[in-house]
TrEMBL record:
<keyword id="KW-1133">Transmembrane helix</keyword>
<keyword id="KW-0472">Membrane</keyword>
<dbReference type="InterPro" id="IPR032808">
    <property type="entry name" value="DoxX"/>
</dbReference>
<feature type="transmembrane region" description="Helical">
    <location>
        <begin position="54"/>
        <end position="87"/>
    </location>
</feature>
<protein>
    <submittedName>
        <fullName>DoxX family protein</fullName>
    </submittedName>
</protein>
<dbReference type="Pfam" id="PF13564">
    <property type="entry name" value="DoxX_2"/>
</dbReference>
<keyword id="KW-0812">Transmembrane</keyword>
<feature type="transmembrane region" description="Helical">
    <location>
        <begin position="94"/>
        <end position="111"/>
    </location>
</feature>
Length: 112
């Protein structure tokens, strides 16, 4: 695995991990849009857990590649779903946010 792949994977994992932490901490700038999109509060911890598991899976994938691929695929599905949720809520100004999390995961997978 190249140095670039390791660096991008670690950065993507940290970025997604930060997103998970933001959900768990109920950061205002995260939970207000979730409420606006109609995402039930009961789902928020599960969304944070999915992101945290994906971030951990990306790191584990540096040692066991199949885990990294599974985590990457899961995160791509997750953030694609986030884009769809934002589009369904017609909150077009928020579309870039899930894409900012999706892009590094896609790049990490492409480099691995």
């Amino acid at each position: 695995m190249s140095t670039a792949a390791v660096v991008v994977t670690v950065l993507a994992a940290l970025w997604v991990g930060f997103s998970a932490f933001s959900v768990f901490a109920r950061a205002k700038w995260v939970v207000e849009p979730l409420a606006e999109y109609g995402v039930p509060r009961a789902a928020w911890p599960w969304l944070g857990a999915a992101k945290a598991a994906g971030a951990a899976g990306l790191i584990a994938g540096l040692f066991v590649p199949v885990i990294g691929v599974a985590a990457g695929v899961g995160l791509v599905v997750y953030f694609t779903g986030a884009v769809v949720t934002v589009l369904r809520a017609r909150s077009y100004k928020h579309i870039p946010f899930p894409l900012l999390y999706l892009a590094p995961v896609v790049v990490a997978m492409a480099l691995a």
